[in-house]
Specification:
5-stranded mixed beta sheet; 2 domains; 4-stranded mixed beta sheet; Dipeptide-binding Protein, domain 3; globular; alpha+beta; 622 residues; Dipeptide-binding Protein, domain 1
């Protein structure tokens, strides 16, 4: 599963990087074919779908309730309001990214600098239930529960192997040529899934290797058959974190080789915003889609704002200055810059500082590429020796980075081989702390045993992508100082452009790479460590870990699945295929005139938040 992201932080991971923050080809791969389906029942609210478990342990047929929730009062309780308040329509919201997207092909990137725009111009079949929409109030945000999106309802039959999606009838593509405002149909869904799996540029192929058949039996029905029941298949289909969203095939066909080279390539979605143009290195605009099919709280149309302006500001200091002077409505502040929050608030009382504490959504770190798993991979043969990998892990300056650099305000935490946010599937902080011990003496002894010395040092070349995370670069510089101090390790740190780092990570042409991995649903946090997985940046696996991963993918018993994850993590940490980076809290500063901008649901990304917010300057003077 190839997920080229670096999302650090807790529930505000998208703000930490998404706010510092493509070529489809061909026609639908299959013609409409009749298939038996189970009719979805009529429902009066957007209830969360669940697959009941029969005696065999496989899901039996159940249906998601249709998305016909009764609208609540137009005066809804909203984030950023002192009490009930009514959305204000219109205005422009301004945020920032650190760099330009490296491609506009919706199938060719999972980097959040592009996905933040793609998620707002495109829609998935399902979505994670949200506190911002009239979803079933008993649903716990962050639980990963799925709600209707382009699919108004769906059923799971065939022992968990047949997924039938009933599509909404009011989702339309942009009014301009070549789609001319036509309605989405099942052929578009079939085309999208086929491209996500088979397009030569796709970075999503490994998500869909379990699909054995896809059919569009009528314009409003789409059916997927998978080769076995998968515990997280719904999360794959409703992946609000990374999946490109449904597209119309006409645009790619009309643009030819220019598809993916500009923001105009995003005029093939059904999302809440339309591409509004932009200039590379300067800014981009997303403008309100007046035909968006979902409604918000109180039954009001979405989005509330007329436009979302995204400024490209690579430097955090410059972004902070732009925020303080009112050029930005939101600033995702990385530590230690987030410690300036109280000072900024004192000067501008309207400013709101939000801190998302808790465990992290991804398991980032420095992957030690052994090489040999992929034809193009190079790697460093020294990493095949477990003593070398363990020594490098023992030399990581956890306490210095967590206490001195990040500081208590960052709420740093330990991370495992998979994200710690998914408790109880992950190791506790107490156990992780006991496993990640900083011990330079033992590390030097292991390196000596492996044959390294002052006259024959271990030489490692790490690439670090620029234009994405200043925090990661600072942490790597602290590690380099610690390693160089041993006298038997020479650590070369090479900052490179984001696009180059992405290309090299895909090909495996690096020795060490700072990279996040495995955020999203549970399966996506562990599958990258499978033998041959595209995101196996360390090119490390064992028969035992492969067995645990494969068992967890199909295990429907939560207790057994939890144990698979825990057993895998203990083996993985001992083998040290990567040097883990500490997790940090997410920080955002927002101007007081921004309303209904709450925290993302912890554990599951939801980049539709620009749709929910509104701008209201009433009573704010600064």
């Amino acid at each position: 599963m190839l997920r080229l992201t670096r999302k650090q932080g807790g529930g505000l991971a998208v703000f930490m990087c998404g706010l510092m923050t493509l070529m489809g080809c061909g026609t639908p791969a299959a013609t409409a074919t009749s298939v038996a389906t189970t009719a979805a029942p009529t429902a009066t609210k957007a209830a969360a779908p669940t697959a009941t478990t029969g005696s065999s342990g496989a899901p039996t047929a159940t249906s998601a309730a249709a998305a016909t929730a009764t609208p609540s009062s137009s005066a809804a309780v909203a984030f950023g309001c002192t009490g009930p308040c009514k959305p204000v329509e219109g205005g422009t919201f301004t945020e920032t990214n650190k760099s330009d997207p490296i491609t506009w092909n919706t199938f060719g990137t999972s980097l959040s600098v592009a996905q933040h725009q793609i998620h707002n111009t495109h829609s998935d079949l399902l979505r994670h239930c949200s506190v911002y929409l009239p979803d079933e109030p008993s649903i716990v945000p962050g639980s990963g529960t799925l709600c209707p999106n382009l699919a108004s309802s769906w059923t799971v039959t065939g022992g968990g192997t047949i997924w039938t999606f009933n599509l909404v009838k009011n989702a339309t593509f942009p009014a301009q040529a070549p789609t001319n405002g036509r309605a989405l149909n099942s052929s578009d869904v079939l085309y999208t899934f086929t491209q996500a799996r088979d397009n030569p540029v796709t970075v999503f192929k490994s998500y869909y290797t379990d699909i054995t058949n896809m059919q569009a039996p009528d314009p409003n029905t789409f059916v997927i058959t998978i080769d076995k029941p998968l515990a997280d298949f719904g999360q794959v289909v409703g992946n609000g974190d990374e999946f490109p969203g449904m597209v119309a095939p006409e645009l790619a066909a009309s643009m030819g080789t220019s598809y993916g080279t500009s923001q105009a390539s995003l005029f093939d979605g059904t999302g809440p915003f339309l591409p509004g143009g932009g200039t590379k290195g300067s800014s981009y605009m997303l403008v309100k889609n007046p035909k968006y099919f979902l409604s918000g709280l109180g039954g009001m149309s979405l989005p509330h704002i007329d436009a979302d302006r995204i400024l490209i500001i690579p430097d955090n200091t410059a972004a902070e200055a732009a925020f303080v002077t009112g050029q930005l409505d939101l600033f995702g502040a990385p530590p230690p810059a987030a410690q300036n929050g109280p000072r900024i608030q004192a000067a501008h009382p309207d400013i709101i500082l939000k801190v998302s504490k808790g465990l992290v959504l991804d398991a980032g770190g420095i992957f030690l590429n052994q090489g040999g798993m992929f034809p193009t991979a190079t790697g460093n043969p020294a990493f095949k020796d477990v003593r070398v990998r363990q020594a490098l892990q023992l030399l990581y300056p956890f306490q210095h980075i967590m206490n001195d650099y990040l500081g208590a305000a960052a709420h740093p935490s330990y991370t495992g081989c998979t994200p710690t946010a998914f408790q109880p599937y992950e190791l506790s902080q107490a156990e992780l702390k006991s496993l990640y011990v900083e011990d330079p003496v033992k590390a030097k002894d292991l390196l000596t045993q492996a044959g390294y010395s002052a006259t024959h040092p271990l030489v490692v070349n790490e690439i670090e992508e620029t234009g994405y995370s200043d925090t990661a670069l600072a942490e790597d510089q602290a590690l380099k100082a610690q390693l160089d101090a041993t006298g038997i390790v020479t650590w070369n740190l090479q900052p490179i452009p984001l696009a180059e780092g992405t290309a090299r990570s895909v090909k495996g042409t690096f020795e060490a790479l700072e990279r996040s991995a495995g955020s999203g649903g549970l399966a996506k946090t562990i599958d990258p460590f499978l033998t041959g997985a595209a995101e196996n940046f360390a090119e490390w696996s064992t028969p035992q870990t492969d067995a645990l991963i494969q068992a967890s993918d199909v295990e429907l018993d939560p207790a057994k699945r939890q144990q698979d994850f825990i057993d895998f993590n203990r083996i993985c940490i001992a083998a040290a295929p990567k040097i883990p980076a500490p997790g940090v809290a997410g920080f955002t500063l927002q101007r007081g005139w921004v309303k209904n901008l709450g925290l993302n649901d912890p554990g599951y990304n939801n980049e539709l938040w620009p749709s929910y917010l509104w701008i209201d300057h009433t009573g704010i003077s600064s």
